[in-house]
């Protein structure tokens, strides 16, 4: 089955799906709950290193190590979300940026992460004794992505999602409606981080080698650009933004445009992202497919919907 498709194109699709998982997690945090994060790559790295360390250094089965990576990232991301209880907006963005840089420094220097040498020989998960590679790995990532989308749709359509959106629009009003903002803000960081942790684990077992360079600020900025471009608070927007900004550089590579020198491709890519961000912030602050903010009267209605039928307020 691994020989059905060209491995190069399979890799492109696999990494596109991994970025989709990253984008969905960040859209939960920033798009739905309104908590600006510039350190999303830290969660990505935590998931990758956790799975790699457990499988390489402790001999865990790849499936178990990947599952453990999601759980560990969920817990650590909840701790990363604690600053959101004290700071907001620009101050929260700078705080998460600092936490992301601290995490990358840890990845690069700690003995358990292999320091500057990273971790190699990360095994691919096996199914009935056959390692999943190329097409097999593509199917695995596809299943994970479908499950992630279904879970996200159910969450954002439930009282949890309505509570997040109410906090995004006006945290003070959310508190006055009885919504436990502390609980929901920490929860969204934990769940959004778990999505990134799953992406990191899939990335680690796909490439078989990881180092701290793969989880820097550039990754956080890239994913944020994708989410903002596609639309805050929109699953379809995340798919659109990730697809556009991820596939565009690949189009340059595939068609070898003479105007794009391959050695300057990353520079051109970041310039393009910057220009698009400026244009989007100027003309479409919520992104191309982002949902418009609700008016104060609708905030009240949204908060009321989070109440149980029996009259109990959101915990």
TrEMBL record:
Pfam families (alphabetical): BPD_transp_2
Keyword check for Chaperone: no
Superkingdom classification of source: Bacteria
Transmembrane residue ranges: 12-29, 62-82, 91-107, 135-152, 186-204, 224-246
Keywords: Cell membrane, Membrane, Transmembrane, Transmembrane helix
GO MF: branched-chain amino acid transmembrane transporter activity
Membrane topology: Multi-pass membrane protein
Localization, UniProt: Cell membrane
GO CC terms in record: plasma membrane
Matches recorded under InterPro entries: ABC_transp_permease, LivM-like
Name used for this protein in its record: Branched-chain amino acid ABC transporter permease
